[in-house]
Every structure is written in C-alpha cells, then in structure tokens.
Amino acid sequence: MVLRSSFFVASILLLTACGSGGSKNDSLPSETPEEKGESLYVLNCASCHGEDGKLGSSGAKDLSVSKLSDQQIEQIIRKGKNAMPAQEAVLETDENIKLVIEHVKTLKNKP
Ligand code: HEC
C-alpha cells in the first residue's frame, strides 16, 4: 500500500516536471481574443471614452449605457460621428474592429 502510493506520487512529480519543462519554450504570453479586444480599446478608445466607457471626454458618449446594435457600433467605429474620428484605419482589420465591438459590449455589464 505504502509502495503503491509513493509510486503514485513519484509519477505525478515526473509528469509535472515534464509538463513545465515542455512548456518553457512556448511560454510567451498568448492573448485571448477578449484580451486583444481590450488592449485595442484601451489603446484607441479609452482616451475619450475611459477604460470603463464612462469618461465622456470631449463629448464622448457613455458606452456603459449605450443601447446601439452591433451594426450601429460598427458604423460609428468605422466612420466616426461628430466629434468622434473614424477608427477604421486605426484598427486596421475587420477582425480588430470585431474584437473592439465585443469589448464595448462588455462595458455595458459593468456597474
Ligand atoms: C477623440 C475622441 C474619441 C475617440 C478616440 C473614440 N471616440 Fe467614440 N465617441 C466620441 C464622441 C465625441 C462620441 C459622441 C458622438 C456623437 O454622437 O455626437 C462617441 C461615440 C461613440 C459611440 C456611440 C455611443 C452612443 O450610444 O451613441 C460608440 C459605440 C463609440 N464612440 C465607440 C468608440 C470606440 C470603440 C472607439 C475606439 C475604437 C472610440 N469610440 C474612440 C469620441 C471618441
């Protein structure tokens, strides 16, 4: 019994050692899509809207209470509106725009 359980512990240790050794090479921080959307937002939008969407600098709308559809948000991001400059060129790809829209929508759930 004692023998069996110490064998068990030994194999766990071995597995753990192998596991961490193997992942050392690819331990670069990999961003999830959510994290990428957030960094794009913080980089390009937070100066006017704030990280929580509520800053309202230079007349920016409070994104935490915004009731726009995905399509309307996309339109405003791409083409801008009044004091908000178009962000299409800044965000560069459709994928980035999509990620930012997803992030904008998470701001609504924050108190
Ligand atoms: C230079 C400041 C500025 C930047 C940068 C900026 N915005 Fe805006 N944003 C505004 C202003 C001002 C408005 C209000 C436009 C209006 O309706 O007159 C606005 C409105 C919006 C709206 C509409 C909200 C509503 O309910 O009407 C959305 C969505 C939005 N911004 C998203 C973004 C996103 C996403 C980014 C980054 C990619 C961004 N904004 C960057 C200033 C900015």
Describe the 3D structure:
- 59% of the residues lie in helices and 0% in strands.
- The protein has a domain of 75 residues: Cytochrome c-like domain (Cytochrome Bc1 Complex, Chain D, domain 2, Orthogonal Bundle).
- The protein is mostly helical.
- α2 crosses α6.
- Bound molecules: heme C.
Instruction: Tell me the distance between the termini.
Output: 55 Å
Top-tier CATH class of the domain at 33-107: Mainly Alpha
Give a quick account of the main beta sheet: strands, pairing sense, barrel closure: none
Q: Residue-averaged pLDDT, rounded?
A: 84
Number of helices: 6
Portion of residues within helices: 55-70%
Tell me the fraction of residues in β-strands, as a range. under 5%
CATH superfamily of the domain at 33-107: Cytochrome c-like domain
Which descriptor suits the 3D outline? Answer: globular
Associated small molecules: heme C
CATH topology annotation of the domain at 33-107: Cytochrome Bc1 Complex, Chain D, domain 2
